[in-house]
């Protein structure tokens, strides 16, 4: 290819990592919910879109982007907990299909509610002034806001790690993911822990939606397309594995980015080829536990 | 923001009214001399182009109302049967079959995508029903899709690219790159620009085909910035276009090059925001701002404002108006709704409904019409004030492919 | 309806189905939709073979349905085959694609099986999309015009709505009868054994892999036939038939009606299409009630609508 320099390749890979950051956030929430509750959350994309719209609402009501960063995860997290309490909870013990299908229907409902209240047309979402523009990162110019998204992702991952490794609640969650029986023996109210995990997952999804809004604007369908990508990431990484979600998210981002450079029209199919290849060689994904889900 | 919000509310109301009308229509009694002229109108009322479709419905209803107020066709009134094609060709074909078989429509007008219009066209051609398509496609006026009952009120990508290309290569530079959605519309636009570019000494640096529905174009920016073209031709549509423009703005690409979208939609600009779109050039079949120069545009805008409390028609909406009005005018000329007679009246028909003179070319039924070159404003006075008209490329046959080139010689 | 009547009727499910198909076009306000019910119904019944009877959740059935549609369409358009030959080719194409996907995917299980089938079906979509010289690409395959069909010396007008309905209904009825026989055969029992307990089936000497494979290929044949019928009905093959939303739709239909029941998927297709078309007439927000009904079904009728009906029936 003409004009292919080392700098361009480096910039392309870096762009892929930035893209992967959003995948990581979505996949980590999905993996958290799956690893703990064995619920494949098809409504995860809808929570992503809800997060973006909630952020838009905060801005319309006179708030700023920083306030939205605080408010959005609280809103989508509480909504997720309500969904778990009102709907998902009743399906525990019924196998994998039922919660999957319930959240599938829920996604329809949530997206349509967005259309009813905010219109079918997308809405503009400007990059916050402080983060607008591009900066020189040594290999070329890069949008400042995308650097911010990477930084936010790292911050969220660190906080999540601290929460899971350093708090009592985190200990309970980790124990529960390995063996729910232990929790019952220890006298933990499992229902509350599961609700919290579901809410944590949807809170991160909403936050990811808000972070994506200045990148692409907001639209009711914004979660549908990215849901498929997030699934690929979660499955490739190994369902229920947080490390897998991070690794696979970054990998998928880089693959999408390099495909755009060398064979742009294959952008959609590339990640599905990746998934097929990974699963045929290693049916449980990178870090998934063999035997789970069969 | 509140003005734009109000605009959407208005659209929904109209849509509901249209749907009610459509739902009630099958139960209307049909007297012998009272048989209305029925026009089927499949458009994507749900899906990503719902707002464009809502505008199409509003404008089409205006054409129906005008026709009926003028006394109809010897007392026969016209009615519009709106159907949701869900932007899906299979759904559109099913709706078209039902419109013909069950609702016994006289004509079908509508569609908002290349694949949907080709699906509807297959159905109407098979059953000898007249169809006037109101969205862009080269293929529909090409063999083997075209048929004697096929009419095309919208522009073709070829003529759009010809008009926009002439302007861009002359004023903005010769070194260009193409970013195209990987489907017929994108390919046809690129082919159109190449045809013009060849005559004007243009230099092509790259053609990047991206899957339709791409949500992130940041991956293209490093390469485009390295290439430093004078012009990036953005041959995609709707949300894809909106996202590209936003990310080109954020990455700084917009400051280095001219972004030219052959079809720059008013609705996409409203959804994308003024900041991101400022300075983006493009072509359009209609912009309400031409009303100071074109008398029929002023008349159309005024009637639209009056009917829909002050709102203005959008580009694709206006096509719904002219598409329906053309068919009704031809029916009045033919003195009835018989397909062959109306088709004969439409072929070669000269008209000026809303944008200056137009004519349906006899050999392929393509509407020859003006293309407007527009630029997105940084800030307008009202929500609808989004573009500046830079030039008008008058509708001439040399913008079109010849019918021999289309396989219709 | 008395319980005795229901019990007796269940013994004649093929007859019951034929009767239902006979009156359907007169019950529905839309005839072209009635044909879609037949086609999607057959597709859902074919899907149910792997999901309901063997317990494999496939998210890649669009490739089987769409593959059949393209094969039939191309056979008529490019090969000039008679309509029945084109339909057979659609059926074979569905089975063949199922064979290829099956060989690769059968080794995975559960949610991973769903994801592998999804990924492979996406590859089929991409191939069809890029091969626009053959398939028409994003514009879809157009102009599969079939106006007259010959049947046992009779020439029928295929454009006439009722004739078209009954020709397609007859083919669907034949396919359902074949499926009914298949399920009543020993193979039907073996399939359910695999679904209920794979380990026990293996211990009883059942070749589990072969059973799954055979069921998947048969499912592909039914799906391919349904796709072929759609190509004849609509005279086009939209690229959307290969899209993952088609795979999602058939899962929804099957569940709505009741997985693992004979008529369930068919009822699911009927309810799904009716709901969608009727609500779309009054409101552009048809996805809201459809989503709510779907959630209600999962919560309150996990066996599906028809599954619930048969459950009330005394044994």
Care to describe what's here?
The complex is a heterotrimer of chains A (294), B (409) and C (315). Chain A is mainly α. Chain A has helices at 6-37, 44-60, 65-86, 97-118, 144-166, 168-178, 180-185, 190-216, 222-237, 242-262, 267-281; strands spanning 134-136, 141-143. In chain A, strands 1-2 form a two-stranded antiparallel sheet. In chain A, helix 1 runs antiparallel to helix 8 (190-216), helix 1 (6-37) runs antiparallel to helix 10 and helix 5 packs across helix 6 (168-178). The longest helix of chain A is centred in the first third of the chain and has 32 residues, at 6-37. Chain B folds into two domains: 2-155 and 291-368, Rossmann fold (3-Layer(aba) Sandwich), CATH 3.40.50.2300; 158-284 and 371-399, Response regulator (Rossmann fold), CATH 3.40.50. Chain C is mainly alpha-helical and 315 residues long. Chain C has one domain (9-243). Chain C has helices spanning 3-11, 13-27, 31-54, 61-79, 83-105, 110-130, 132-135, 161-184, 186-196, 198-203, 208-234, 244-257, 264-282, 287-300, 304-312, and strands at 148-151, 154-157. The radius of gyration of chain C is 19 Å and the shape is globular. The mean pLDDT of chain C is 89. The A-C interface holds A 40, 87, 90-91, 94, 96-98, 101-102, 104-109, 111-113, 115-116, 228, 231-232, 235, 239, 265-266, 268-269, 272-273, 275-276, 279-280, 283-285, 293-294 and C 57, 104, 107-112, 115-116, 118-120, 122-123, 125-126, 130, 244, 248, 251-252, 255, 285, 287-288, 290-295, 298-299, 302.
Give the topology.
The complex is a heterotrimer of chains A (294), B (409) and C (315).
Chain A lengths: L5 H32 L6 H17 L4 H22 L10 H22 L15 E3 L4 E3 H23 L1 H11 L1 H6 L4 H27 L5 H16 L4 H21 L4 H15 L13
Helix pairs in contact in A: 1-5, 1-8, 1-9, 1-10, 2-3, 2-4, 2-8, 2-9, 3-8, 5-6, 5-8, 6-8, 9-10, 9-11, 10-11
Chain B lengths: L1 H23 L12 E7 L6 H20 L8 E7 L4 H13 L5 E4 L3 H14 L2 E4 L16 E3 L4 H15 L3 E7 L2 H17 L2 E8 L10 H7 L3 E5 L2 H14 L1 H4 L1 E4 L4 H7 L1 H4 L3 E4 L10 H13 L7 H20 L4 H8 L3 E2 L6 E3 L6 E2 L2 E6 L10 E7 L16
Parallel strand pairs in B: 1-2, 1-3, 3-4, 4-5, 6-7, 6-8, 8-9, 9-10
Antiparallel strand pairs in B: 10-14, 11-12, 12-13, 14-15
Helix pairs in contact in B: 1-2, 2-13, 3-4, 5-6, 8-10, 13-14
Chain C lengths: L2 H9 L1 H15 L3 H24 L6 H19 L3 H23 L4 H21 L1 H4 L12 E4 L2 E4 L3 H24 L1 H11 L1 H6 L4 H27 L9 H14 L6 H19 L4 H14 L3 H9 L3
Antiparallel strand pairs in C: 1-2
């Amino acid at each position: 290819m003409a004009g292919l320099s080392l700098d361009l390749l480096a910039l392309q890979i870096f762009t892929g990592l930035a893209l992967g950051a959003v995948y990581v956030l979505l996949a980590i929430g999905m993996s958290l919910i799956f690893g703990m509750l064995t619920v494949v959350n098809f409504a995860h994309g809808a929570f992503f879109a809800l997060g973006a719209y909630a952020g838009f609402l905060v801005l319309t009501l006179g708030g700023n982007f920083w306030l939205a960063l605080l408010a959005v995860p609280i809103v989508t997290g509480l909504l997720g907990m309500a969904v778990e309490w009102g709907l998902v909870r009743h399906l525990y013990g019924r196998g994998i299909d039922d919660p999957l299908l319930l959240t599938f229907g829920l996604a329809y409902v949530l997206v349509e509610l967005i259309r009813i209240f905010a219109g079918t047309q997308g809405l503009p979402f400007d990059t916050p002034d402080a983060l607008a523009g591009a900066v020189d990162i040594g290999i070329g110019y890069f949008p400042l806001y995308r650097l911010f998204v990477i930084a936010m992702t790292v911050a969220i991952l660190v906080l999540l790690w601290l929460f899971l490794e350093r708090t009592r609640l985190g200990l309970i969650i980790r124990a529960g993911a390995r063996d729910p029986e232990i929790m019952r023996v220890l006298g933990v109210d499992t229902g509350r822990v599961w609700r919290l995990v579901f809410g944590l997952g949807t809170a991160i999804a909403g936050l990811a939606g808000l972070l994506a809004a200045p990148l692409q604007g907001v639209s009711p369908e914004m979660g549908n397309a990215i849901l498929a990508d997030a699934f690929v990431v979660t499955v490739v990484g190994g369902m229920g594995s947080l490390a897998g979600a991070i690794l696979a998210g970054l990998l998928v981002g880089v693959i999408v980015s390099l495909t755009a450079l060398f064979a742009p029209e294959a952008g959609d199919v590339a990640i599905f080829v990746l998934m097929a290849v990974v699963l045929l060689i290693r049916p449980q994904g990178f870090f998934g536990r063999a035997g789970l889900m069969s | 923001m509140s003005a734009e919000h109000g605009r959407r509310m208005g659209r929904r109301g109209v849509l509901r009214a249209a749907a009610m009308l459509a739902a009630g229509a099958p139960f209307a009694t049909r007297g012998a001399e009272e048989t209305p002229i029925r026009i089927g109108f499949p458009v994507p009322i749900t899906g990503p182009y719902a707002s464009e479709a809502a505008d199409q419905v509003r404008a089409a209803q205006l054409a129906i109302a005008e026709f009926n107020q003028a006394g109809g066709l010897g007392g026969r009134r016209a009615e519009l049967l709106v159907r949701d094609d869900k932007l899906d060709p299979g759904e559109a074909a099913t709706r078209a079959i039902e419109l013909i078989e069950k609702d016994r429509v006289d004509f079908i007008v509508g569609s908002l995508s290349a694949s949907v219009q080709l699906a509807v066209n297959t159905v109407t051609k098979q059953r000898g029903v007249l169809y006037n398509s109101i969205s862009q496609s080269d293929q529909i006026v090409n063999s083997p899709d075209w048929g004697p009952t096929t009419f095309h009120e919208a522009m073709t990508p070829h003529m759009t690219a010809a008009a926009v290309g002439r302007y861009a290569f002359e004023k903005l530079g010769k070194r260009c790159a193409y970013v195209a959605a990987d489907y017929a519309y994108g390919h046809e636009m690129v082919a159109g620009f190449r045809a013009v570019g060849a005559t004007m000494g243009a230099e092509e640096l790259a053609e990047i085909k991206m899957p339709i529905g791409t949500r992130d174009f940041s991956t293209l920016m490093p390469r485009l910035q390295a290439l430093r073209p004078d012009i990036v031709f953005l041959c995609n549509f709707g949300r894809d276009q909106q996202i590209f423009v936003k990310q080109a703005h954020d990455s700084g690409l917009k400051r280095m090059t001219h972004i030219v979208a052959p079809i720059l939609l008013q609705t996409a600009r409203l959804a994308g925001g003024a900041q991101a779109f400022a300075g983006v050039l493009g072509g359009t079949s209609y912009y309400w701002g031409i009303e100071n120069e074109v008398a029929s545009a002023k008349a159309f805008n005024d009637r639209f404002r009056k009917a829909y409390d002050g709102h203005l028609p959008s580009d694709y909406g206006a096509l719904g108006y002219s598409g329906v009005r053309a068919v009704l005018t031809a029916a009045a000329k033919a003195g009835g709704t018989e397909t062959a007679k109306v088709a004969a009246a439409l072929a070669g028909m000269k008209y000026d409904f809303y944008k200056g003179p137009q004519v349906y070319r006899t050999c392929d039924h393509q509407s020859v019409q003006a293309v407007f070159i527009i630029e997105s404003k940084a800030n307008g006075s009202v929500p609808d004030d989004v573009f500046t008209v830079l030039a008008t490329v008058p509708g001439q046959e040399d913008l079109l492919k010849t019918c021999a080139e289309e396989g219709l010689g | 309806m008395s319980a005795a009547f229901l019990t007796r009727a269940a013994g004649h499910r093929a007859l019951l189905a034929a009767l239902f198909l006979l009156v359907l076009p007169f019950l529905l306000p839309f005839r072209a939709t009635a044909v879609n019910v037949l086609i999607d119904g057959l597709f859902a019944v074919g899907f149910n073979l792997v999901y309901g009877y063997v317990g494999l959740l496939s998210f890649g059935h669009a490739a089987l349905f769409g593959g059949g549609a393209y094969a039939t369409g191309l056979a008529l358009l490019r090969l000039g085959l008679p309509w029945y030959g084109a339909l057979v080719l659609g059926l074979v194409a569905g089975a063949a694609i199922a064979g290829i996907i099956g060989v690769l995917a059968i080794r995975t299980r559960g949610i991973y099986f769903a994801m592998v089938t999804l990924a492979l079906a996406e590859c089929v979509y991409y191939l069809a999309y890029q091969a626009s010289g053959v398939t028409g690409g994003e514009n879809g395959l157009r102009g599969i015009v079939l106006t007259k069909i010959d049947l046992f010396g009779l020439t029928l007008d295929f454009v006439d709505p009722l004739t078209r309905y009954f020709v397609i209904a007859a083919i669907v009825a034949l396919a359902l009868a074949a499926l009914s026989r298949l399920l009543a055969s020993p193979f039907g029992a073996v399939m359910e054994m695999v679904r209920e307990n794979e380990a026990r089936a293996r211990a009883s000497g059942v070749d589990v892999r072969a059973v799954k494979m055979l069921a998947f290929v048969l499912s592909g044949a039914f799906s391919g036939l349904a796709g072929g019928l759609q190509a004849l009905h609509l005279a086009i093959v939209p690229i959307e038939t290969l899209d993952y939303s088609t795979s999602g739709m058939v899962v929804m239909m099957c569940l709505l009606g009741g997985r693992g029941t004979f008529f369930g998927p068919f009822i699911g297709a009927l309810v799904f299409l009716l709901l969608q078309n009727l609500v779309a007439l009054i409101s552009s927000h048809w996805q809201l009630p459809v989503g709510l009904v779907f959630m209600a079904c999962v919560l309150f009728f996990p066996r599906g609508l028809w599954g619930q009906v048969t459950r009330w029936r005394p044994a």
